[in-house]
Recover the amino acids of this structure.
C-alpha cells in the first residue's frame, strides 16, 4: 500500500473528492492518504486469474466480483482500501451510485514484498472490523501459497492454508479451484 504518505489530516469527503480527479490511486486510513505503487507482472496476472475464475463462477448468483479499481469502505476503521479483488453479494452495493462498496463478503490481496506486512497486519485488523466480511485471502506472488482467513460461527478468524497440488476453497461464495489455476502464467510451478 505505502508508496508515499500525506502528512496532514484529510476528511473522508475530501479524500473521495480528490480521488475522483487524481491520476493515481490512493488508499485512505484514518485521515491519512497513501499513494498506491505499481504492481509486478506476476501480481497483475494472479489478480486477473482470480477475477476471471470468480466472475465465471458467480454469474447469476447475485454476487459481483470487482477487480483492483473499486474501493472498499470500512466504516468502523475509517478506511478506504483498493483490494486486488473484492466480492459483494449485498444488494445495497449494487443499488448505489457510489464508487466504492461497503459490504464485501470476500477480499483477496496478492502479496507484494513491500505490502505483505501491512496486508497481514494493520490492513487485516481494519478489515476484521467489518461485520459483513467472511473471508480474507492472501496470495503469495513469489511461491505457490494461499492463506484464507475465514470467520467462523463464533466470530473468530481461522487460517486455512493452501499449497501446490491442493484445491483452494472460498466458502463464503461456494467456490473452489485447483491452486494452480490462480497461478496460471504467473510463476513457474
Amino acid at each position: 500500500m505505502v508508496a508515499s504518505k500525506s502528512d496532514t489530516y484529510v476528511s473522508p469527503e475530501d479524500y473521495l473528492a480528490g480521488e475522483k480527479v487524481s491520476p493515481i490511486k490512493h488508499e485512505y486510513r484514518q485521515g491519512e492518504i497513501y499513494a498506491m505503487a505499481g504492481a509486478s507482472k506476476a501480481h497483475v496476472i494472479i489478480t486477473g486469474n482470480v477475477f476471471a475464475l470468480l466472475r465465471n463462477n458467480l454469474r447469476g448468483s447475485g454476487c459481483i466480483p470487482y477487480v483492483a479499481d473499486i474501493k472498499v469502505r470500512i466504516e468502523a476503521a475509517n478506511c478506504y482500501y483498493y483490494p486486488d479483488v473484492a466480492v459483494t453479494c449485498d444488494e445495497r452495493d449494487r443499488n448505489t451510485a457510489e464508487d466504492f462498496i461497503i459490504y464485501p463478503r470476500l477480499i483477496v490481496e496478492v502479496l507484494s514484498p513491500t505490502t505483505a506486512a501491512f496486508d497481514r497486519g494493520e490492513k487485516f485488523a481494519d478489515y476484521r472490523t467489518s461485520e459483513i466480511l467472511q473471508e480474507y485471502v492472501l496470495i503469495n506472488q513469489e511461491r505457490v501459497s494461499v492463506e484464507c482467513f475465514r470467520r467462523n460461527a463464533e466470530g473468530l478468524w481461522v487460517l486455512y492454508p493452501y499449497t501446490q497440488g491442493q484445491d483452494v476453497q472460498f466458502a463464503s461464495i461456494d467456490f473452489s479451484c485447483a491452486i494452480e489455476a490462480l497461478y496460471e502464467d504467473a510463476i513457474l510451478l
